[in-house]
Amino acid sequence: AKKKSILDFYRMKQEKQQVAWITAYDFPTASFAEAAGMDMLLVGDSLGMCVLGYQSTIPVTMEDCISHCQAVRRGAPKTWIIGDMPFMSYQSSDQQAVENAGRFLKEADTDCIKLEGGIRIASRIKAITEAGIAVMGHIGLTPQSSGQLGGHKAQGRDVNNARAVIKDALAVQEAGAYAILVEAVPPEVTGFIADLLTIPVYSIGAGPCDGQLLISADLLGQFQAFTPKFVKKYANVAEIATKAFGEYIEEVRSGAFPTDDHVYHIIEPEEDFQKM
Ligand code: KIV
Ligand code: NA
Questions:
Q1: How many domains does the chain have?
Q2: Domain match, 119 and 31 both
Q3: Helix (H, G, I), strand (E, B), or coil: what is residue 129?
Q4: What residues bind 3-methyl-2-oxobutanoate, as annotated (predicted)?
């Protein structure tokens, strides 16, 4: 399949075709996703928890993100890739935001970047867009500011909070974002936003709209610390991997592995070898 562009994503919204996407952090996952026909891939700063074992996304650095984006690009050369800007790579100033957004394109060949926040981050979105870089917004539950939100909690569940989420969505579109991700808000709010905005609106844990995102480590059953309500597990890789490792350990200890199938035999006739 041909690599999709912004124009395909606009068209898909107009034609009411759903966009299916996941996060990917490494070469194998990216290559499986591309082979399966995934519409796009996010190299999320959730890599902090899913790959690096941190308790949150806060410690993740630009270097972590760039390096994982590079691996994902190598695994999925024909897929639209979104680089996720880590905490403190865009919060300080518009200039810092533009410079770090540019690094994703120059150093990791991503197609766009994503950052968290609505009204409060609109000037960053505008500055990055004016630099010629496609921006995806991210509103609702924004994990980098979960300290302010009182934890990883669903947003927009009462009327005032729902209004705030809708205002954020409008601000993100107004600032020039090409698409927006809505995380963990009621489906009624998400549906309203998707109808209101001209840009594509995607959901993670926010009900039906123009497309769905899941975290690959959740979908595959690799991430074990906790499972949000919105996750559907399509596999249990943790169980499969632990079982495979256990069998390997047993076979090494018993001598059942390796067998004659797993060794390289000497090429010379045996007599010559014994003379050496
Ligand atoms: O980092 C990530 O995977 C994300 C999703 C949780 C939306 O930003
Ligand atoms: Na993120």
A1: 2
A2: yes
A3: helix
A4: 45-46, 84, 114
Determine the structural domain holding residue 254 and report its residue range: 240-275
Q: Is 217 in the pocket of ligand 1 (CB under 6 A)?
A: no
Q: For residue 175, which amino acid is it?
A: A
Query: Is the pLDDT assigned to residue 81 strictly greater than 90?
Result: yes
Round to whole Å and give the CA distance between 101 and 129: 10
- CA-nearest of 174, 65, 168 to 117 is 168
25 and 144 belong to one structural domain: yes
Q: Is 63 a catalytic residue?
A: no
pTM of the model: 0.95
What CATH number does residue 34 fall under?
A: 3.20.20.60
Q: Is residue 1 included in any domain, yes or no?
A: no
Which atom number of ligand 1 is nearest to the Cα of residue 204? 7
Annotation-wise, does 31 bind a ligand?
no
Q: For residues 224-239, give the mean pLDDT.
A: 93
Whether residue 49 is contained in a domain is answered as: yes
The total number of residues written for the chain in this structure:
276
Mean pLDDT rounded to a whole number for the chain: 96
- ipTM for the complex? 0.99
Residue 69 has pLDDT above 80, yes or no: yes
127 and 101, same structural domain?
yes
Residue to mutate, 45, 112, 145, ligand 1, most ligand atoms under 8 Å from C-beta: 45
Q: Is the predicted pLDDT of residue 240 greater than 80, yes or no?
A: yes
Q: Which of 183, 239, 270, 271 is catalytic?
A: 183
Distance 11 CA to ligand 2 centre (A): 26
What H or E segment, with its residue span, contains residue 161? helix 159-175
Q: Atom 4 (ligand 1): residue with closest C-alpha?
A: 44
* Phi, psi angles (nearest 5°) of residue 111: -90, -20
